[in-house]
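Fill in residues.
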C-alpha cells in the first residue's frame, strides 16, 4: 500500500522559492509509515515538541540527515512551562535557526503536528502572541532558503525527533550533537533501512 497525500498547498513567498505543503490524509485501513530520505543535495529536518501534561514542562528536539540518511546534527533543550503547540513551533524555529547557521539552502522540514503544518501552509490566523512570534520568525527564515518542502508525518515516522525532544526534558542547557547519541542510534539505523510501521486510527 502506498501513502496518499491530500490538500496539496502552495505557500507563495515574496521570493521565487515556493514551499510545498503536504498533509497526509486519515485512513480507515492501517497505514504504512516510514521515514523517507531526502533527495540528493537536500537536508532533511525532523522536529518535535514535548509537553508533560501534569506539569506543563516542555522541551524541543530535532535531527538533520542527508540523502544517505547520514546523521548531520541533532539538538534538544528544555524550554520551561508552555503547551504542546508552542513547543512544536519552538522546535521548528530552533531547527531553522540551525539551518541558517550551517548554510543549508535546500531543506525538507517534517513534523508530526498537523496543526502546525496547516497554520504555516494556509497562513491561518492565530490569537496567541507567542505563536505569532514563532510564525513570523519561521516565515522569515523560510524566505531565505533556495528551496523548502514542509510535510506532515505520523509519529511513527518521527521517532528520532521525538527521542531528542524527550531527552530535552533532562537537559539544563541547550545541547547540539554532531555524532548521534546512543539513545537515537537504533532509531536512525531503522530509519535508514526503511523500517515500516503500520498505523491504525
Amino acid at each position: 500500500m502506498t501513502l496518499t497525500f491530500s490538500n496539496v498547498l502552495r505557500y507563495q513567498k515574496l521570493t521565487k522559492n515556493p514551499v510545498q505543503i503536504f498533509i497526509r490524509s486519515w485512513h480507515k485501513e492501517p497505514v504504512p509509515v516510514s521515514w523517507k530520505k531526502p533527495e540528493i543535495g537536500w537536508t532533511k529536518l525532523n522536529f518535535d515538541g514535548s509537553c508533560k501534561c501534569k506539569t506543563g514542562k516542555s522541551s524541543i528536539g530535532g535531527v538533520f540527515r542527508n540523502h544517505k540518511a547520514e546523521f548531520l546534527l541533532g539538538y534538544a533543550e528544555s524550554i520551561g512551562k508552555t503547551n504542546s503547540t508552542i513547543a512544536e513551533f519552538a522546535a521548528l524555529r530552533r531547527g531553522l535557526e540551525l539551518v541558517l547557521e550551517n548554510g543549508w539552502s535546500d531543506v525538507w522540514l517534517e513534523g508530526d503536528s498537523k496543526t502546525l503544518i496547516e497554520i504555516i501552509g494556509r497562513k491561518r490566523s492565530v490569537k496567541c502572541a507567542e505563536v505569532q512570534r514563532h510564525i513570523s520568525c519561521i516565515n522569515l527564515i523560510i524566505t531565505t532558503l533556495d528551496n523548502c518542502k514542509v510535510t506532515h508525518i505520523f509519529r511513527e515516522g518521527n521517532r528520532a525527533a521525538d527521542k531528542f525532544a524527550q531527552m530535552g526534558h533532562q537537559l539544563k542547557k541547550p545541547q547540539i550533537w554532531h555524532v548521534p547519541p546512543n539513545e537515537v542510534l537504533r532509531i536512525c539505523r531503522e530509519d535508514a533501512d526503511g523500517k515500516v510501521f503500520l498505523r491504525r486510527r
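The longest strand covers residues 71-81.
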